[in-house]
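4.2 Preliminary Data

To establish feasibility before requesting continued support, the project team ran the inverse folding procedure on a target of 281 residues. The structure was first converted into the token representation described in Section 3, and no sequence information of any kind was made available to the design step. The complete token record follows.
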């Protein structure tokens, strides 16, 4: 039988796998539509299963403070997702996804240490290895400095958005999983519609970009596993393990899109796996 800590670790790692697939799908989808059109489609596809879970688990109530935290998490997450999808569409997933993860993990890890105290020495070593591993995975092979600079700026913006989402959604309502995510998703959809209106872009039809719909389902699934993990483990541990998702994104980009992966990046993936072992101690 799993202890509560191990359940948290298992859920966090599952969220990393699911998010990795979602980010890869979103990057591919953004090659067909703008990042805000993809954000709108992916947000819509993610709302449907979450609403069904709200009904099945009878999670209808959310306090005003919980609604505010979840809505702000949705805004922050929308900014992060849009920035990451655009960055991934530039064709350098092996660089931008890990960089976004480093920035996105650093903020909530620091927040968790301040609010919950420092973890043990093994987990601190695991955090250090994870940051080093993600940093190595982010080493870029592109020679286009303009594309690289744009990708780095977008990745940092995505990381800030993700970090805000991690912190805010975890504060939304203790014990609730699905209804905070529905509120966050609705806020994200509002941001997507606002950006489409400002840019005078049409809202694409649901069948125009099936990969964007897949990205939304995977992103919603990763969010669910993240909040489930937060029920059983510390925020910094959950965020650090969940933020290993770039390894999955990079592996998919290598296998499906044949993007080049350097030796340093493979070493980074190995360090991420070692970090999991240390954090799980």
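Position-by-position output of the design step:
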């Amino acid at each position: 039988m799993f202890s509560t800590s191990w359940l948290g670790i298992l859920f966090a790692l599952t969220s990393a796998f699911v998010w990795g697939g979602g980010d890869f799908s979103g990057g591919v989808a953004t090659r067909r539509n703008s990042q805000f059109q993809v954000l709108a489609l992916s947000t819509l596809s993610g709302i449907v299963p979450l609403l069904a879970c709200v009904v099945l688990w009878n999670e209808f109530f959310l306090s005003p403070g919980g609604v505010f935290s979840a809505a702000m998490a949705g805004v922050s997450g929308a900014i992060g997702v849009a920035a990451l999808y655009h960055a991934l569409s530039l064709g350098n997933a092996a660089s931008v996804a890990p960089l976004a993860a480093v920035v996105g993990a650093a903020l909530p890890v620091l927040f968790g240490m301040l609010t919950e105290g420092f973890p043990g020495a093994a987990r601190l070593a695991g955090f250090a290895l994870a940051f080093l591993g993600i940093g190595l995975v982010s080493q870029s092979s592109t020679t286009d400095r303009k594309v690289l600079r744009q990708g780095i700026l977008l990745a940092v913006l995505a990381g800030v958005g993700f970090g805000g989402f991690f912190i805010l959604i975890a504060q939304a309502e203790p014990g609730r999983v699905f209804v905070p995510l529905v509120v966050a998703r609705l806020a994200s959809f509002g941001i997507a519609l606002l950006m489409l209106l400002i840019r005078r872009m049409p809202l694409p039809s649901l069948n125009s970009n099936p990969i964007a719909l897949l990205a939304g389902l995977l992103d919603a699934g990763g969010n669910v596993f993240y909040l489930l993990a937060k029920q059983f483990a510390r925020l910094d541990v959950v965020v650090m393990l969940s933020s290993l998702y770039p390894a999955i994104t990079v592996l998919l980009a290598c296998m499906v899109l044949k993007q080049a992966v350097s030796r340093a990046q493979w070493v980074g993936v190995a360090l991420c796996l070692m970090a999991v072992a240390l954090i799980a101690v």
